[in-house]
Specification:
alpha+beta
Length: 177
């Protein structure tokens, strides 16, 4: 899931589908997970004259969400996938990159999602054009309201970890539909 400016990957989920049992598993990787860019990625950035981050005296160390930004538009998806593969020791066969407007469109295309919003969610960030205003209770979420739900994190004590939990709950309901 890419932010509205297509600069950061704010949501990183891995899906695994078992074709024999038709079971689908999802795991989320927190956007602020500390990663080290592969040497291949660092070499590519260096060859293109791009900045390579340094944290704690180690070259190529950054947050997972930042890999997308450092990569640049032409390499962002490729580098994100390579970094996640390296982090988890897996091979990713396919990926989907969805920005916020694409997310809203998908939710609207399936007619919205019904689910319980467990907390009062309110947040306003005019710079991002982000306005979140949802009340608790079981409700129908169209694309706009679904985006508000899955992007909210400011008022949660555990910030991104709670947001990841809410995102997974939303995805389960969306996939049921």
């Amino acid at each position: 899931g890419i932010d509205a400016l297509a600069i950061h990957s704010d949501v990183n989920m891995i899906a695994s589908f078992d074709t024999k049992t038709n079971d689908l598993s999802l795991i989320s990787i927190p956007r602020d997970t500390k990663v080290t860019m592969t040497q291949e990625i660092q070499n590519n950035l260096s060859q293109r004259g791009k900045y390579i981050p340094v944290r704690d005296g180690k070259k190529g160390v950054c947050k997972l969400t930042e890999v997308y930004a450092y990569a640049g538009k032409d390499y962002a998806n490729e580098f994100q996938v390579k970094t996640i593969e390296d982090l988890l020791g897996i091979e990713i066969d396919y990926y989907v990159a969805v920005d916020t407007s694409g997310f809203r469109d998908v939710v609207d295309a399936i007619g919205g999602v019904d689910m319980e919003v467990k907390d009062r969610l309110y947040y306003s960030d005019p710079e991002q054009g982000l306005y979140i205003d949802l009340y608790p209770g079981y409700q129908h979420l169209d694309g706009d309201k679904a985006e508000q739900l899955v992007r909210y994190r400011d008022g949660y004590a555990s910030k991104d970890l709670k947001r990841i939990e809410v995102q997974r709950d939303f995805m389960k309901e969306m996939l049921k539909k």
